[in-house]
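Tokens as discussed.
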């Protein structure tokens, strides 16, 4: 089992930047593909970005391409989400997730991630 703890959320003005971090508890961090999802009030949880266990492949939702960057530091058991040019519609609770993904089309599916963090709030003001 792996525990995930997100940090780095907060309040930022539109056009600003934030970097989210997700620290994993296990030394077998490299066994997991990692993803970021978000959920806004009254909406379903949606995929944001994912990164393969070797960091060789990254995946993004169309809504964040060119603005967000996912990365991981396997030596620190940590995955990051750098968010630039933030928009009010990016406001949501952001969740880190870990799982074993075996097909590129599955990275965006929440059901394929077995472990989730508690979430961190990101609020973008206009």
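Sequence:
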């Amino acid at each position: 089992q792996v525990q995930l703890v997100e940090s780095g959320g907060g309040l930022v003005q539109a056009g600003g930047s934030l970097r989210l971090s997700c620290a994993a508890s296990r030394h077998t961090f490299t066994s997991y593909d990692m993803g970021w999802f978000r959920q806004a009030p009254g909406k379903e949880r949606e995929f944001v970005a994912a990164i393969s266990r070797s960091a060789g492949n990254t995946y993004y939702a169309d809504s964040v391409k060119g603005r967000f960057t996912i990365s991981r530091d396997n030596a620190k058991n940590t995955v990051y989400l750098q968010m630039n040019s933030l928009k009010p519609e990016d406001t949501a609770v952001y969740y880190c997730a870990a799982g074993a993904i075996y097909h590129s089309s599955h990275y965006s599916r929440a059901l394929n991630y077995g472990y989730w963090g508690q979430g961190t709030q990101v609020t973008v003001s206009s």
